[in-house]
Inverse folding.
């Protein structure tokens, strides 16, 4: 079962992730986005230097931080029992192709509910100026044995 | 481009149908890096007691915001987006799972010029996302 003592634990900053234009297009196609995250001329006509990522793109960066938790023996999270409970992205500014981002995850809470554990993570995503760009908040439900 | 001043709570601002096939799941797995086998292997989905191969919750979430992005004409104006995953979307090996997304104005914040858009994503007459809300900055 999940170790409740990881509540409040902060995991190390991940290495830099460069948001590539073609990666943004690939992700945009996968979530059935229209021209807004695929057409460079359109993005530039809106005043952006490059493509703006689809709203859920930071999940890719959150994943890098989450990997640290799932491989942490202290956390004791059995990935085969994990179900995604909820997800939220709060932006300070749009993420644009060309951004170099790092992330830092904190375990916001560990709750027990009817034999299951609910673990909420807050992943802060920063740019190269160390400014907060986006916070990804995710709750995983770890089903009891 | 919609104007903040012209919006009213209750307005349906966008509605769109989407078809999710197994191809969609493979494409999303590659694009997102989520290669959990329950999203493409029938035998594993069955072995862990699921009704079938499921769409990634994050794919359903990612698709559901697109009508809003197209309505605003700018992904960068979606400043806050959250959902709860309440029901799975089962994707058959042949054919597709049909999703319908409806976007309704839920609240308007005059001081910040932000609109809350409430999303209803339906699959086989069930709502599959709960508390699905996006804030759009005007």
């Amino acid at each position: 079962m999940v170790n409740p003592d990881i509540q409040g634990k902060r995991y190390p900053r991940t290495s830099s992730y460069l948001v590539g234009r073609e990666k943004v297009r690939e992700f945009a196609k996968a979530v059935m986005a229209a021209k807004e995250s695929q057409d460079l001329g359109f993005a530039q006509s809106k005043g952006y230097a490059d493509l703006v990522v689809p709203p859920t793109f930071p999940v890719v960066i959150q994943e890098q931080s989450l990997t640290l938790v799932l491989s942490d023996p202290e956390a004791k999270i059995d990935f085969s029992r994990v179900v995604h409970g909820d997800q939220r992205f709060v932006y300070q500014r749009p993420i644009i192709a060309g951004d170099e981002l790092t992330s830092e995850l904190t375990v916001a809470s560990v709750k027990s509910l009817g034999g299951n554990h609910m673990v909420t993570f807050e992943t802060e995503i920063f740019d190269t100026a160390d400014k907060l760009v986006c916070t990804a908040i995710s709750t995983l439900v770890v089903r009891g044995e | 481009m919609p104007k903040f001043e012209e919006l009213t709570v209750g307005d349906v601002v966008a509605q769109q149908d989407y078809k999710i096939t197994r191809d969609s799941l493979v494409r999303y797995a590659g694009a997102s890096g989520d290669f959990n086998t329950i999203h493409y292997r029938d035998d594993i989905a069955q072995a862990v007691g699921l009704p079938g191969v499921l769409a990634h919750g994050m794919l359903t979430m990612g698709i559901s915001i697109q009508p809003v992005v197209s309505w605003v004409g700018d992904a960068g104006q979606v400043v806050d987006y959250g959902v709860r995953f309440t029901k799975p979307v089962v994707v058959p090996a042949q054919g597709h799972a049909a999703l319908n997304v409806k976007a309704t104005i839920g609240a308007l914040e005059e001081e910040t010029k932000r609109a809350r858009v409430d999303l209803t994503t339906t699959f086989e007459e069930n709502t599959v996302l709960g508390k699905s809300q996006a804030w759009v900055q005007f």
The domain at 4-20+56-137 of chain B is CATH 3.10.129.10 (Thiol Ester Dehydrase; Chain A).
